[in-house]
Structure formats: C-alpha cells, structure tokens
Amino acid sequence: MNYQDDIPLARRIKSIKTITTKSFLRVGLLFLGLGISVTFLANKSFLSQRKSLDDSINSIETRQNKSLLGHLPYKEASKKDLILFSPGIYVHKDIYEKFKEMQFMAAQRGVSLQLLSGYRSINLQRDIFYENKSIRNQTAVERSRDSAPPGYSEHSTGYAIDVGDGNYPDTHFEVEFEQTPAYKWMKRFASKYHFVLSFPPNNKQGVTYEPWHWRFEGTVNALREFDAANKIIKFK
Ligand SMILES: [Zn+2]
C-alpha cells in the first residue's frame, strides 16, 4: 500500500510539487558545483603550466625580494669545489686558473695583482659583519652599505674575489685602489677572463662602490649564481 494514501489528495499534490522543486534545485546546484569545479581545475592546470614556464623567472624574483639592505642571498660553495689559492685563501676551482693567468699577464706589464680574499664561509662573514659594525660604531644598516650581512655575500659562492695592488698595499680595500695600475689593468682586461666589477659607482643594488671586489661569470654555474644581481642591473 502506498503510504501517501492516508494523505488527502490536495496535500499529496503539494508535497509532490515540493519534491519536484527541491529536486530541480538539487540538480541545478549539482551542475553549478560541477561547473565551478571544472573551471577551478582547468584554471589550476593552466596555472601549474604557467608556473613551470615561469619557474626560473620566479626564483630570480624571489631572490630579489629576499634581498637584505641591497644584498642578495647566496649559498655557501660546497667544500669539494674549493681550492687553496694562497695561505688562508680559498677560491672556487673554476676561477683558480683564470686568476693565475690574469696575474701572469698583468705581471708581464709590471703590474702586481694580489688576491686579498676569496671564499668566505657564512660564519666568517658573520664575524666580519658584526665585528666591523662594532669597531666602526656603525648600525647594521650603515655597515651593510660596505659589507654584506651573513648569508648575503658573493664571497660565499667562491666566485667573488677582492683584488689589491701588490705595490700599493695602502690602497687595499680602499676606494684609492682605483688609482693603482692593478685596478687600471683589471678595468681594461678582466672581462677577457670573465671577471666583472660587482659594485661599480652608483650601482643599482645600492651597495658602496668597491673597486677591489670582482666576481667571475665565466661558467654557466657562476652566471646562474649572479643571475638575480644581473637582472637588477638590467631592469631596475
Ligand atoms: Zn669583496
């Protein structure tokens, strides 16, 4: 027996109507839900495709956004990539021969290129940054114009070097280095050996001019390290 038999006809019709209306609403909602899901999924897959396409750009942008007081974050070189150049000074193995060659060629003209520093661990950079800050009685912001905060130094890659003139030691790490034959030689010939001045006067990173600080861009890996820095130079 149909359970609705107990209910008067008028009410039965009303209840059927209600059911039908509800069903339509349900089906409608179901389709709407499906529509939203399909749109969402399509969008998501489009976004993920775009994401993979833009991955390199994103990583560069992320690094630029993570810059600290003008300095970009750099990872520490792995120990196996480092080689001892002179007592206490390690450099990336890819720049060892290049610098030796440069030194030799400069010496042919009576110019003494001296390697003052190369690879620095993040710990050493930490000591330099905080020690100098207290010695010079500077705030972190003031100090950051001259020295990179730990984790933000090109030196930690092993591809950055500080160069001095062996005949003019008083100019080591001073702007006056730019008056020396060593600097003049570097300015003219260093690019042949893929060394570039990282912080020229009024550089867009806002770091103090450092005529002694050069970075190597002569391998794909080295170039990749400095991609973000080069993008700032190009687009800022
Ligand atoms: Zn330096």
TrEMBL record:
One of its GO terms (biological process) is proteolysis. CDD domains: LD-carboxypeptidase. Residues 89-218 form the D-alanyl-D-alanine carboxypeptidase-like core domain. Keywords: Carboxypeptidase, Hydrolase, Membrane, Protease, Transmembrane, Transmembrane helix. This is D-Ala-D-Ala carboxypeptidase, Metallo peptidase, MEROPS family M15B. GO terms for molecular function: carboxypeptidase activity. The chain crosses the membrane at residues 24-42. InterPro entries: DD-CPase-like, VanY-like_core_dom, VanY/YodJ_core_dom, Zn_M74/Hedgehog-like. The lineage of its organism: Bacteria, Bacillati, Cyanobacteriota, Cyanophyceae, Synechococcales. It comes from the Bacteria.
